[in-house]
Amino acid sequence: MQVASDGEAALRLLEESNVDVLLCDINMPRMDGMELLRRVRERANPPEAIMLTGHATVETAIEAMKLGAYDYLSKPYHITELDALVRQAADKRRLRVDNQRLRAQLARQSAMPDIVSESDAMREVIRLVERVAPSDASVLITGESGTGKELVAHAIHRLSNRADSSFIDLNCAAFQESLLESELFGYEAGAFSGAKGRKLGLIELADGGTLFLDEITELPLQLQAKLLRAIETRSFYRVGAVRKVEVNVRIVAATNRNPDQVVADGAFRADLLYRINGFQINLTPLRERPDDIEPLAHYLLKQLAGPTPPELTPEALEALRAYHWPGNVRQLRNCLERAVLLSDQGRITLSELPPEVARPTSYVRPGIPAPAGSPASVAAPVDASGAPSSLREVERQQILAALEQTGWHRGKTAEILGISPSTLYRRLRDYNLERRS
Ligand SMILES: Nc1ncnc2c1ncn2[C@@H]1O[C@H](COP(=O)(O)OP(=O)(O)OP(=O)(O)O)[C@@H](O)[C@H]1O
Ligand SMILES: [Mg+2]
C-alpha cells in the first residue's frame, strides 16, 4: 500500500507504479478527489477508484460514478466494509487486465505464420501448437527434413506470451563443440586465448523469449549435460565465469531423427530428452498427407511468383500429387521455384518439372505392394506385413534412392532431399553408406 498526501502527489505515484485500487477522499488540498478521478480515468489502464466522503450527497456520489469510480463510501465507514470493497475492486481490475492480455493474444493469433493445413494430420499439428504455445512447456518437434519444423517453432513463439521478446535459434549441428559451447553460453573476457571481451551466449539473448535448438540430437554429450543443468536450475555459467547468470527461457527443440533411437544409441541423454519432450509435435512426411500437396503448391507459387503466379496444368498437378517428396515441403518449394523460372505463357506443364517428378518410375507408397519388376532399392521399405519399417530405415532408403538418382552426386542429393550437405555427410557416416562398385 502506498499513501499520498494530496491529489498531485497521488498522480505522481500512479505514474511510477502499477496500482490496482485507488482509495481517495473527495476533499483534498491542491487537487480534489473528483479532479484526480477525472485525470486518472484518462490514463491507459487506470486503477479502480473508491471514493471516500465525509458528507456524501447524492449529487457527488452520482458524479463520481459517472466519472467511472468503482464505488463510494461515506464516513464513518466500517473497516470490514472497506476491506470487502477493496477486494472486489482489485478483482475487477485484475479481470480487466487479464482480459486485455487475452485480447492482445487473440490479435497475435492472426499473426500466426501461414501454415497450410488441409490434411487431418496438419490440422492436428495446428491444434497442438495453439494448445501448447501459451504455456512455458518445452516442446520437441520431430519430423523428416523439410516438413516444416522451423515454421512450427516460429508459430509456437508467435502465439506465446513471449511473442514480444526474442526468438533465438541455434543449429546444434552447425558448429564444432567448443564453438557451440560459447555460442550457447557465452564467455567472459580471458576465458580462453582470443576471448578479448565478454560475449553473451544465445541462451542469455533469449532471456524472456524462446530458444529454438534445431537438430538438438546433434548436441555433443558434454553440452547436453550443461544444457540440462541450465534448464533445471534456470541458470548457467558463461565459459570462464565464476558467477551464475539466471535466465528465463522457453526451450523449443527440433530433430529429424527418432529421438528414442538416438537415446538407445547412446548419443543422447535420456534425462535431457525427458526434459524437452514434455510436449512432442510430430510432422508427418508430405507423402503421407497428399491432401496438402495441391494447397501447398498454390500457396508456394504465390509466395514465389506474386499474386498471379503461373498456373499448373492438370498433368503437372497430378505429377506433384503422385510424387513421394523425400525432401518434403522444402523439395516441393525448390521444384516450384525452378518451374516458375522455366515456365512459359503463365503455365507450368510436365516439362517444367524435374524429371524425377514428371516421370516417376520407381517409388512405391508404403503399404502398397511393389509391382513386379520395380527396382527394390528405391522403393520405400515395407516389411513382410506391409507396414513401413523404422524411421531410420525409411530415411536410409530415401537417402540411398536420392543418391542413385543423382549418380551419387552429393550436392545434388542434398538438394533433392532438402537437407544441407553437412547433414547429408553425417547421415552417410551414420548409415555407413558407400557407393557400391
Ligand atoms: N505447412 C506448410 N505451409 C507452408 N509452408 C510450409 C509448410 N511446411 C513447410 N513449409 C515451408 O517449407 C520450407 C521448409 O520448412 P522448414 O524449414 O520449417 O522445415 P524443417 O522441418 O525445419 O527442415 P530441416 O529439418 O531440413 O531443417 C520452408 O520454406 C517453409 O516455410
Ligand atoms: Mg529446420
Q: What does this entry look like structurally?
A:
By secondary structure, the protein is α/β, with parallel strands linked by helices. The chain has four domains: 7-106, 3-Layer(aba) Sandwich (Rossmann fold); 120-284, P-loop containing nucleotide triphosphate hydrolases (Rossmann fold, 3-Layer(aba) Sandwich), CATH 3.40.50.300; 288-360, Helicase, Ruva Protein, domain 3 (Orthogonal Bundle), CATH 1.10.8; 373-437, Arc Repressor Mutant, subunit A (Orthogonal Bundle), CATH 1.10.10. Helices cover 45% and strands 13% of the residues. The protein has helices at 7-16, 33-42, 58-66, 79-109, 120-132, 149-158, 177-185, 202-205, 221-233, 259-264, 270-276, 293-305, 314-322, 328-342, 355-358, 391-405, 410-417, 421-430, and strands at residues 21-25, 48-53, 71-74, 139-143, 167-171, 186-187, 199-200, 210-214, 235-237, 244-246, 250-255, 279-283, 311-312, 347-348. The strands form five sheets. It has a five-stranded parallel sheet. A three-stranded parallel sheet has the order 1-2-3. The site of magnesium ion (MG) has 3 residues, from α6. Magnesium ion is lined by residues 149-150, 214.
